[in-house]
Design brief:
Radius of gyration: 18 Å
Strand order of the largest sheet: 1-2
Largest sheet: 2 strands, antiparallel
Shape: flat
Number of strands: 4
Mean pLDDT: 86
Helix content: under 10%
Distance between the termini: 18 Å
Strand content: 35-45%
Number of helices: 1
Length: 70
């Protein structure tokens, strides 16, 4: 059984320290699990600064995590 961490959060404990919390999905398969890793925002901008100052709107392109899965 493999454990796939899908998210990590942090909580404060008695205002004295911060504790990480891992959200893990157990899976048996060793291949990429597209249902728990949806496409995410990539590193390319949606537009240039000049386009933004001109009032343009857009969404940055997304990348499929399977393309970087090892």
């Amino acid at each position: 059984m493999h454990e796939n961490e899908v998210m990590r959060a942090f909580k404060t404990v008695n205002d004295s320290y911060i504790e990480p919390i891992s959200f893990i999905v157990p899976r048996r398969a060793e291949v990429f699990q597209g249902d728990i890793y949806p496409p995410v925002v990539g590193t390319k901008p949606a537009m240039s600064a000049a386009e933004w100052f001109d009032g343009a709107e857009g969404f940055p392109p997304k990348i499929d995590l399977e393309s970087i899965y090892e």
